[in-house]
Amino acid sequence: MKREITIYDIAKELNVSSSTVSRALQDHPEISQKTISKVKDTAEKLGYRHNTFASNLRTRKTYTIGVLVHELQSNFMVSVLAGIEKVTSEAGYDLIIAHSSESFDKEAANAKNLFHKRVDGLFVSLSLQTTNLKHFKPFQEKNIPIMFFDRVDENSDATKIVIDNYRCGYQATTHLIEQGCKRIVMVTSDLRRNVYSQRHKGYQDALFDHKIAYDSDLVLIRDLSEEGGRTSALEILKKTPFPDGAFITNDFTAAVCLQTLKEHGVRIPEDIAIVGFNNDKICKFVDPNLTTINYPGFDMGAIAAKNMIQHLEGKSTIDTTSKIVIHSELIVRESSRRKKG
To answer: Boundaries of each HTH lacI-type domain copy (predicted)?
Structure first.
């Protein structure tokens, strides 16, 4: 096996000291641009690789940040990761991404693995099964910063970055009521998780404020997937009287539900008006286009990453900020628009 090229090999080739090579590779201001260029060209010619591991041992930093999410398939999560990656890469940090597949055990195992990989910081979106944060205690004991985003534990003192899910649920339901809907189905996921419980509370309060009775039979707790959208549509079809509105807390599930209802002769929005959630690209590809809540995933990721990097570089601290709320808004399209304006 060919041995690894070192700074001593570059120094020998150029007949300079190893300290000159080391400083040139780091663009040290005391080294001339001519020497820096010469050293870097020679390093590339010889096949030199920077020994990040040795450097990290000296600085006690790995320049890696862990990201632990509940899944990787949604457009929303991809956009959050894109926002995180843009900011962290510009700051010279790498990402290690792990996902829990909605399993508490897998989340705890991934957290342990990221801890042993000595990440400098950690972003987390909790699984549906997570009921406590004990598996993040080792990070806290070592003063490794953690930022929870999207799915968080509202009772925790940890730094959280979220949208106002309650307001979004209230706004979506109120919009349907303003379009004339009086019997509104809500399709959502496990109410133990903050995002779904708060959207549900917003739905409940909007009904109450408009003097519409809450009916638990109209709240469908489902897996927010393609199958979940299909089964929800089939359940809606069986309900009597037939619902005239639907608030579905995931765009992909809403699109599948909408399409399935159409296949059974239901007119959208005349028979049932539909509102989704996230503002995924699929909203513009279904017919009619889907009304939704804009959930700015890229912005959430970028803001979380900026706060993390500033903390790691000692420019500010996330410890004094318990919650950052990202702006979101209702986008009205044809799937719910029954009235002009």
So the answer is: 5-59
Give pLDDT tens digits for 101-110: 999 999 999 9
Band of pLDDT at residue 44, cut at 50, 70 and 90: confident
Instruction: Domain 63-163+297-327: give its CATH architecture.
Output: 3-Layer(aba) Sandwich (3.40)
Furthest-apart CA atoms within the chain: distance in Å: 88
For 31-120, list the strands marked E by DSSP: 64-69, 94-99
pLDDT of 294-324, one tens digit each? 999 999 999 999 999 999 988 887 776 678 9
176-201 pLDDT, tens digit per residue, is: 999 999 999 999 999 988 999 999 99
In words, the CATH class of domain 165-295 is alpha beta
Identify the pLDDT of residue 157: 84
Instruction: Give span(s): CATH 1.10.260.40, the chain.
Output: 7-50
Q: In angstroms, rounded to a whole number, what is the distance separating the alpha carbons of residues 36 and 55?
A: 19
Distance from the Cα of residue 91 to its chain's centroid: 20
- Name which CATH class applies to 7-50: mainly alpha
